[in-house]
Amino acid sequence: MNAEPLRFDTKIAVLLREDLESWQRLNATAFLVSGLGATVPEVVGEPYEDADGVAYLPMFRQPVLIFEGSKEVLGAAHARALSRALPRALFTSDLFSTGNDRDNRAAVRAVRSGELDLVGLAVYGPRNGVDKVMKGSRMHP
Questions:
Q1: Which of the four pLDDT bands, split at 50, 70 and 90, describes residue 74?
Q2: Beta bridge partners of 91
Q3: Per-residue model confidence (pLDDT) at position 99
Q4: What is the dihedral of CA 84, 87, 92, 98, to 10 degrees?
Q5: How is residue 44 annotated by DSSP?
Q6: Contact 58, 48 (CB under 8 A)
Q7: Does 19 score more than 80 pLDDT?
């Protein structure tokens, strides 16, 4: 067995607006990464199994880095993610008040890209591209 740590040439990153409450950060992060796992199959590893043979769902094959920043930093990151055409998921403040997927999608569809009240963004792609998208943000404490 190779004991050398795995190094990935890609990165999964979530950027959250710094003024969110704890429950909002957790909720937004869960929704954001679910979008990546559903549409970018290479980020998902193999299923897990414990020593008793009980099966568990697969998870991401690499760490998810969580960042935070101001509303302005989030807006700039969104623009950079769009310009780089990276796979991305977004979470707007409106989604905290909707109760289902249909209403979530309608809330996003009602607002132009540059006017979205973003509270979270997830991106996946080459390490250097994701680093450039996250410029100006800081690691979540």
A1: very high
A2: 120
A3: 86
A4: 160
A5: B
A6: yes
A7: yes
Q: Model pTM?
A: 0.91
Which amino acid makes up residue 104? Answer: N
Distance CA 31, CA 47 (A): 20
Write 75-80 long-range contacts (CB < 8 A, 24+).
75/114, 75/118, 76/135, 76/136, 77/15, 77/121, 77/123, 77/133, 77/134, 77/135, 77/136, 77/137, 78/113, 78/116, 78/118, 78/121, 79/114, 80/132, 80/133, 80/135
Task: Read off the tokens for 34.
Answer: 């679910």
CA distance 22 to 117: 18
Q: Tokens 């591209």, residue?
A: 129
Averaged pLDDT score across all residues of the chain: 93
Token digits of residue 137: 């943000």
Q: How many C-beta atoms surround the C-beta of residue 87 within 10 A?
A: 15
